[in-house]
Amino acid sequence: MEYLHTMVRVSDLEQSLHFYCSLLGMEEVSRRDSEKGRFTLVFLCAPGDRDSAHANKSPMLELTWNWDPEEYTGGRNFGHLAYRVENIYELCQYLQDNGVTINRPPRDGRMAFVRSPDGISIELLQKGDALEPQEPWASMENTGTW
Q: H/E/C letters for each residue in 44-88?
């Protein structure tokens, strides 16, 4: 068995691309529009997975944007996406400076949770050992759910 991709449905493609690409640093690998099916598929990869994504089409994140408005609830949702990051404090600060709420701050220097514009929970994990706890993260309370 080989992992290929995770698919999430998004309600605003441009807003989602801004979040995943501009803020989180993912890269667009391919895009497909289906006039007949009235949807767009955009495949993204993390920078560290670029070679594998292009060569093997994995691992990737598939954003599915249905052109006709639809509310996604219940079984069409799922747990979370997880990404390993170089410096959890720097990324969380960058995301917060750009209007992203840090739902579970990286108090332990190892793990944080944020949400995409569509409410998808994103887990951020520090690469290697946890960083030493530091403020303001160490004393920051949780916000919302993840």
A: EECHHHHHHHHHHCCCEEEEEEECCCCCCCHHHCCCEEEEEECCH
Q: What are phi and psi of 40, to 5 degrees?
A: -125, 135
Which of 14, 70, 86, 123 does the annotation list as catalytic? 123
pLDDT in tens, 47-67: 999 999 999 999 999 999 999
**What per-residue confidence (pLDDT) applies to 74?**
60
Clarify whether 123 is annotated catalytic.
yes
Sheet holding 102-104: strands in order across?
A: 80-85, 121-126, 111-115, 102-104
User: pTM of the predicted model, to two decimals?
Assistant: 0.79
